[in-house]
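Translate structure to sequence.
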């Protein structure tokens, strides 16, 4: 696994900090964020009924819009190392 730290929430309190990494080997973006409340979870599931409920092996994660630059950077890191 080749995980590369990309960025952390610029407004972090260092205890609750959305973070983004790029796994350049698996070609995946890894995101740490806040779990949604039950209402948000239900709204997300209702917005895509063909998918059904979120499985126990997956999660909806909330991250602030100010993290978009870090997500873009993670995507760029994967594109730079894309070998498939």
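Result:
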């Amino acid at each position: 696994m080749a995980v590369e730290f990309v960025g952390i929430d610029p407004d972090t309190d260092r205890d609750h900090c959305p973070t983004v990494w790029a796994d350049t080997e698996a070609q995946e973006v890894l995101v740490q964020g806040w779990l949604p409340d039950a209402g948000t979870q239900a709204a997300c599931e209702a917005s895509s009924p063909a998918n059904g409920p979120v499985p126990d092996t997956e999660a909806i994660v909330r991250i602030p819009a100010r993290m978009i630059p870090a997500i873009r950077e993670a995507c760029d890191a994967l594109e730079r190392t894309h070998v498939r």
